[in-house]
Specification:
The complex is a heterodimer of chains A (about 180) and B (about 500).
Chain A (H helix, E strand, L loop, with lengths): L4 E7 L3 E11 L2 E5 L5 E8 L6 E6 L2 E9 L3 E6 L2 E6 L20 E3 L4 E6 L6 E2 L4 E7 L2 E6 L4 E6 L6 E2 L4 E7 L4
Antiparallel strand pairs in A: 1-2, 2-3, 3-4, 4-5, 5-6, 6-7, 7-8, 9-16, 10-12, 10-15, 11-14, 12-13, 14-16
Chain B lengths: L4 E4 L3 H13 L3 E6 L7 H5 L2 E4 L12 H11 L3 E3 L9 H9 L3 E2 L4 H8 L1 H11 L6 E4 L5 H11 L3 E5 L9 E3 L5 H16 L4 E5 L5 E9 L5 E13 L2 E7 L6 H18 L3 E9 L5 E7 L6 H8 L3 H9 L15 E8 L1 E2 L5 E2 L2 E2 L2 E3 L6 E5 L6 E2 L6 E9 L2 H13 L2 E3 L5 H8 L2 H5 L6 H4 L9 H11 L25 H10 L5
Parallel strand pairs in B: 1-2, 1-4, 2-3, 4-5
Antiparallel strand pairs in B: 6-9, 7-8, 7-9, 10-11, 10-13, 11-12, 12-15, 13-14, 15-22, 16-17, 18-21, 19-23, 20-22
Helix pairs in contact in B: 4-5, 12-13
The chains are: A mainly beta (about 180), B alpha+beta (about 500).
């Protein structure tokens, strides 16, 4: 018999929400929210290859569309896009955030794009706020600055290369906080 | 000047719009495309195609030598540059003329004179168009004189780089005590950014609105206006929502601004389409900002309220025909435009790339969609992130906004993050609805994404763990290339995930 499992959903206002889901029949589930609310969910119109599906949640009907990207499910729900991380292979940890982007001691590409210039070398001393990488995407230029004072540990950015969002471009050994 | 085959030297939604307009006028349209744009709809729509090697704009859409050579080969006799790219490049306009091609736009002389901020301002001042009071500063301007002039303009003032753009070398100064220090800082910044440290001081308008007038001139000496567009809702100094009429204008002010714009057009001997941009102060004073010597992104709102086709008018002027008379041009009802960008409002509006797995446009009364993408296209880092424009009409502003809300709600784009939800929040914001806003609207009214309802949260939980709902999938065939098919649905993959041991 299926057993309940827990899913973590990032809510724009309340952060990660742990939600219990229990299959109750064919295309039917019972969902328990962190606030204790329990809602029955039923798939009411068959899901097609075009990504459209209709559900009833409690007594509200939803016509949804969904598509898979490389790392996420894009869900169109009530006129807005929800990006749901795709289940990963192996055991899942609830609430683990996708990209460990804002690492305190690194410069991370905050958008996908092309590296225009690099102003950092390994071993170089930098001050907080110093622009170390300039990148460009879709006609927009973005300057990326050192998040802290310290010494450049490694540089993974090369002028002219394109990088993905979240790529670590420069890592910095922070000065001991005074 | 007659022509029969027109190159649209552009891409995206404007290329589609222009090719359609050219074909509707009974002419042939030629498209150009880069390698990444091979499958873009403007290519499929055209009568003839120029395929260029390369990905970047510089290698393709801006390669004027190759474009002109290809025009000769294909028997092209006119070029429409659209907006951006080559549209305000006077050198290119001259090169077209030299090659015997009709450039569909203003004369190279006008493009040149309006491209230089200081020249443009002087020309407008001479013509009697109101400009922002300002002082030019040279190396030998005495400090005392600068202070006295700034006092005359009245604080706050803005220090601006003469060669500037994009907010670089720009500083607001609120009191005389800060003037000289701010000026020095702006000069340093301008030298670093543009290699040109010249600055000028201009009146700073508090709570400005951006209102612009569509103008047209022909070769018979006629200059007309097509009323205004309100473009105050901006992010990163770029418009995202435009409308006509402007909620800020009454009939008297509207007439006054339109007359000023026509005065500008006449002073410049303006031909073809252009836009005179103004800053409007809360007290109803308005000041010349710049003239855009091209068709603008937001031209459809003017088309919907005037009932005129601006591209058809551009072709008519380029052929040497006369414009309709001013008295024939009236505003009817209200139109609003939303620009849909591949960007993430929650991540500082930074661009988002990916494959467009789904594009579903709203089809319904009083809704127009201008777009240059189709499902399966990739949004890449090479070009502008604008995916489409939704333009809605209504008998009044409230009706137009209600239709826009419906249109946004019925636009589905999956595969890249877009600003659709954000635009809906703005359209429904009480301050926006009141019509009382300025260009700082988004800074002063941060838009937060609404929380998910209990029902939405429950459904998101079900769909996020789709493997557990494998029973949904009617298809038992496994998908071999799960990450590339453009219209792939999660439901179809359910079995794979279950096989991977992820099902519950």
């Amino acid at each position: 018999m299926p057993t309940p499992s827990t899913v973590s959903i990032a809510c724009p206002q309340h952060g990660a929400q742990d939600i219990a889901v229990e299959p109750t029949g064919s295309n039917q589930w019972q969902v328990t929210l962190p606030n204790g609310t329990t809602l029955p969910v039923t798939l009411t119109a068959p899901a097609g290859p075009d990504g459209k599906a209709t559900f009833t949640v409690g007594n509200v009907q939803f016509a949804t569309q969904a598509a898979l990207t490389n790392d996420a499910i894009h869900l169109w729900l009530n006129g807005r896009l929800l990006v749901l991380p795709r289940p990963k292979q192996g055991p899942q940890r609830a609430g683990s955030s996708a990209a460990a982007g804002a690492s305190g001691n690194a410069i991370v590409a905050s958008m996908p794009g092309k590296i225009i210039s690099v102003h950092a070398k390994a071993g170089q001393a930098v001050t907080a706020g110093e622009v170390l990488v300039v990148m460009e995407s879709m006609k927009m230029e973005l300057s990326l600055a050192a998040p802290c004072a310290g010494t450049v540990d490694a540089v993974n950015a090369t002028e002219g290369n394109t990088v993905d969002q979240g790529a670590v471009l420069v890592s910095i050994n922070a000065d001991e906080a005074s | 000047m007659t022509f029969t085959k027109v190159l649209v030297a552009n891409r995206g939604e404007i290329a589609v719009r222009l090719i359609q307009g050219i074909q509707q006028a009974g002419l042939q349209a030629v498209a150009v495309h880069s390698e990444p744009d091979k499958h873009a709809p403007h290519v499929a729509l055209a009568d003839d195609v120029i395929s260029l090697k390369g990905q970047t704009s510089a290698e393709t859409y801006l390669d004027t030598a190759t474009l002109l050579a290809e025009c000769k080969r294909l028997g092209v006799d006119a070029i429409h540059p659209g907006y951006g790219f080559l549209s305000e490049n006077a050198e290119f306009a001259r090169a077209c003329k030299k090659a015997g091609l009709t450039f569909i736009g203003p004369s190279p002389e006008v493009i040149d004179s309006m491209g230089d901020k200081i020249t443009a301002k002087k020309l407008m001042d001479d013509a009697g168009v109101p400009i922002l009071p300002s002082i030019e500063i040279t190396d030998d301007t005495p400090e005392k004189a600068i202070e006295a002039e700034a006092e005359k303009i009245g604080y706050p003032v803005l220090v601006k780089a003469a060669a500037g753009g994009g907010g670089k070398g720009m500083r607001r100064v609120d009191s005389p005590a800060d003037l000289l220090a701010s000026m020095a800082a702006a000069q340093r910044e301008a030298t670093n950014a543009f290699g040109d440290g010249r600055v000028f001081i201009e009146k700073y308008v508090v709570s400005p609105r951006h209102v612009e007038i569509q103008i047209f001139g022909d070769t018979h000496g006629n200059a007309i206006h097509l009323w205004e567009r309100e473009c105050s809702i901006q992010r990163r100094h770029q418009k995202i929502i435009e409308e006509s009429p402007s909620p800020a204008l009454d009939d008297a002010l509207r007439e006054k601004m339109a007359t000023a714009a026509v005065t500008a057009a006449k002073a410049l001997n303006y031909t073809n389409a252009g836009t005179v941009e103004f800053i409007l102060a809360p007290n109803g004073e308005f000041y010349f900002l710049e003239v855009n010597t091209r068709l603008q992104v937001e031209h459809p709102v003017t088309e919907l309220v005037t009932g005129l086709d601006l591209v058809a008018l551009q072709l008519l002027v380029a052929k040497g025909e006369a414009l309709p008379s001013q008295s024939a041009i009236t505003q009817r009802g209200h139109a609003v435009e939303c620009r849909i960008y591949a960007e993430d409002p929650a991540n500082n509006f930074l661009p988002s790339i990916g494959t467009l797995h789904r594009c579903q446009w709203p089809i319904g009364p009083n809704v127009r969609v201008d777009t240059g993408i189709v499902e399966g296209n990739a949004v890449s880092i090479h070009y502008d992130p604008m995916l489409a424009k939704l333009i809605c009409w209504g008998p009044n502003r409230a009706a137009a906004l209600a239709t826009m809300d419906w249109a946004l709600q019925n636009t589905v784009i999956l595969g890249v993050t877009t600003n659709i939800g954000f635009l809906r929040q703005v359209i429904n914001h009480p301050q926006f609805i009141s019509g009382e806003f300025d260009t700082h609207f988004l800074e002063h009214h941060p838009i937060t994404e609404p929380a998910l309802s209990d029902e939405e949260l429950a459904l998101a939980a079900i769909i996020s763990r789709w493997p557990a709902t494998a029973a949904l999938s009617k298809s038992t065939t496994s998908t071999t290339a799960p990450n590339t098919a453009p219209t792939e649905s999660p439901w179809a993959l359910a079995n794979n995930w279950r096989n991977a041991g992820l099902g519950v």
